[in-house]
From TrEMBL:
Binding-site list for Mg(2+) 1: 421, 428
Record-linked CDD domains: LysRS_N
Organism: Microbacterium mitrae
EC number: 6.1.1.6
PROSITE patterns, per database record: AA_TRNA_LIGASE_II (PS50862)
InterPro entries linked to this entry: Aa-tRNA-synt_II, aa-tRNA-synth_II, aa-tRNA-synth_II/BPL/LPL, Lys-tRNA-ligase_II, Lys-tRNA-ligase_II_N, Lys-tRNA-synth_II_C, NA-bd_OB-fold, NA-bd_OB_tRNA
Cofactor(s) required for function per UniProt: Mg(2+)
NCBIfam families: lysS_bact (TIGR00499), PRK00484.1 (NF001756)
MF (Gene Ontology): ATP binding; lysine-tRNA ligase activity; magnesium ion binding; tRNA binding
Co-factor note (free text): Binds 3 Mg(2+) ions per subunit.
Full protein name: Lysine--tRNA ligase
Length: 507
């Protein structure tokens, strides 16, 4: 069976793949058997590249048709197009960044034996090294007129159809194929790298120190979430994958590191959907002598600078072509005031629980009895009435005290805490606090959380005595924030969370 593909191959069936794999394995064996004659066999240690395809395109991309440069270059890339026509073969080589160049392998240049070997042994998907003069073909295609070629790595399985979209399932499960086939997949990976670099640059501008905190913890905390549990053989103890780095970063502030941040992985043993993943990248930052207003200003700057780094502007263009404006000064609204306006009834921190329950029942908002506090009802009702209408970036300010155990009480409004959630496109992107630094009140809050845990709340926080001991050594007034990196990419690219994570967890 021949493995030569035309310009527009059909999607291979399982039988086709089985047959092609057998053919390619035979070619691999021949390459290895004749490695001395075929310059390194199927998998050489290296090939003598002198430049990249991207660099050649940048330097010679505007050559007029049928032009010779006299420049000899050696490049390597994956074969994504291959056409053999008698005395002249054409291949398109693709670099990792998606840039492409044409390779022209002619009888006159490489000789009969080399041309025959090329036709027999080179397939779509192979990594190929070519060396020769940089030219522009008669049709104006930037090309290498090949003097010599060499397999850089033999592909045993065929590529998917380069001319049709991969299914979402294939994109997620086989991201390596997605990166080969789809420009958007490579753009997503590049956007993530640019975003992280921008975040670090903005923090550096404000004299923040990047630190690392434990991922394996003897006690989970720092957020309301259900943890993953594991066991340490070395210590013979139960350990938790962290749900948040908060309590360790605050220890750093207690120790005198006044401005700290961390970008790392968090793990929450909860559901997965278009905005949630059990494993995700998280940014947290803490600034001594700031508060939730100052940390909101910093968060806006971080996001807007990241948008500029990826898109060149605070007006980003999503994958579907929609433009979305992340610029300007973002609105700040009160949770209680916005809920009251949307529900058509006054709701305050003093509203009795019975009234909130009645409104929830009327609206079909379900709150499990084990977590049915005033604050939980307010937050669930707010999501029901208000959340879906928040398209523009908006800071939702001043949350109920009983759902925010790590946050300072509001300086002037009884019954709420100085906390905000940032919503973009209707989903929560970040959260920020004026941090609770009174160890006595913090212990009381932990005890209340422990009572919720005893009632069956899997997300309630345990009492963390070691963290409390740190607070008892005095933590300065501090503003803190946390933001999902994956969700930040969602805001910048318009994609779902599984597209923004390079290798998401799937069943």
């Amino acid at each position: 069976m021949s493995d030569q593909q035309s310009a527009e191959p059909t999607e291979p069936t399982e039988d086709d793949i089985f047959e092609q794999k057998a053919v390619r394995l035979a070619k691999r064996a021949k390459l290895i058997e004749q490695r001395d004659n075929l310059a390194g066999g199927a998998y050489p240690v290296t090939v003598p590249v002198t430049t990249t395809i991207g660099a050649l395109r940048q330097q010679y991309g505007e050559l007029e048709a049928d032009t010779a440069t006299g420049v000899i270059a050696g490049v390597a890339g994956r074969v994504v197009f291959n056409r053999n026509t008698g005395k002249l073969c054409f291949a398109t080589l693709q670099a990792g960044d998606g840039s492409r160049i044409q390779a022209m392998i002619s009888l006159a240049k490489v000789g009969e034996e080399s041309l025959a070997a090329y036709k027999e042994l080179v397939d779509l998907g192979d990594h190929l090294f070519v060396s020769g003069e940089v030219i522009s073909s008669r049709r104006g295609e930037l090309s290498i007129m090949v003097d010599e070629w060499q397999i850089a790595a033999k592909a045993i399985l065929p590529l998917p159809n380069m001319y049709s979209d991969l299914s979402e399932e294939t994109r997620v499960r086989s991201r390596f194929l997605d990166l080969i086939v789809r420009d958007q997949a490579r753009a997503n990976a590049i956007a993530r790298a640019k975003t992280n670099a921008s975040l670090r640059a903005t923090f550096a501008k404000h004299d923040f120190l990047e630190v690392e905190t434990p991922m394996l913890q003897v006690q989970h905390g720092g957020a309301s979430a259900r943890p993953f549990v594991t066991h340490s053989n070395a210590f013979d103890t139960e350990l938790f994958l962290r749900i948040a780095p908060e309590l360790y970063l605050k220890r750093a502030v207690v120790g005198g590191l006044d401005r700290v941040f961390e970008i790392n992985r968090n793990f929450r043993n909860e559901g997965a959907d278009s905005t949630h993943s059990p494993e995700f990248a998280m940014l947290e930052a803490y600034q001594a002598y700031s508060d939730y207003n100052g940390i909101a200003d910093l968060t806006q700057e971080l996001i807007q600078e990241a948008a500029i780094a990826v898109s060149g502007s605070t007006t980003v263009t999503w994958a579907d072509g929609t433009e979305f404006d992340l610029g300007g000064q973002w609105d700040r609204i009160s949770m209680y005031d916005s809920l009251s306006a949307a529900a058509g009834v006054a709701i305050t921190p003093q509203t009795p629980l019975a009234e909130l329950k009645a409104l929830a029942e009327k609206e079909g908002v379900d709150v499990p009895e084990k977590v049915a506090t005033h604050g939980k009802y307010v937050e669930e009702l707010w999501e029901h009435f208000v959340k879906g209408d928040l398209e523009r970036p908006t800071f939702v300010m001043d949350f109920p005290v009983d759902t925010s155990p790590l946050v300072r009480e509001h300086r002037s409004i009884p019954g709420v805490v100085e906390k905000w959630d940032l919503y973009v496109r209707g989903f929560e992107l970040a959260t920020g606090y004026s941090e609770l630094i009174d160890p006595v009140i913090q212990r009381e809050r932990f005890v209340e959380q422990a009572k919720l845990a005893a009632r069956g709340d899997d997300e309630a926080m345990p009492v963390d005595d070691e963290f409390l001991r740190a607070l008892e050594h005095a933590m300065p007034p501090t503003g803190g924030m946390g933001m999902g990196i994956d969700r930040l990419l969602m805001a910048i690219t318009g994609l779902g969370i599984r597209e923004t994570i390079l290798f998401p967890l799937v069943k």
